[in-house]
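Model it.
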Amino acid sequence: MNHTGAPEHERGFTLIELMIVVAIIAILAGILIPNFVNARSQAQTAACESNMRSIATALELYYADNQVYPTAAGAAVVPALFTANGVAYLNNTPKDPAAQSATATYSLTTTQATGGSPAGYTIQCPGVHAGSTLAKLPLSSGALCGANCTATKILYVATQGLEASP
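Modeled.
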């Protein structure tokens, strides 16, 4: 008799073996996917913080040369705002990866020194950030945002640094 089927010792995987492999892959995916999502949120927050520090450095350089901050009230942070006497203190327009729109920009509000109060500024990030990524930032009250942080915005305030904001 001519048997064309596979020999008995070359059988494929059983249904149980395949189900076990699929279950193991599903468990690993269930563990890893949330970690990747959180890592992305943390990277977006870190990029925003870095951009805000760069803007603050440009502001301080501008102030050191001109003894005044550029006049701004909720103005978009663009290189033209940071140019004085032919010197550009900011070379490009920083973009926040967590911004809801590709055209959203950081906003700047400055105050000039008056009556003994020093000049200052506040930079606001245009993006919406996960509260868990802001846990280590202080709130305007000075307390840390904490593990159950409900803040979604980041501010950079002159003389105080980064802050979480609702």
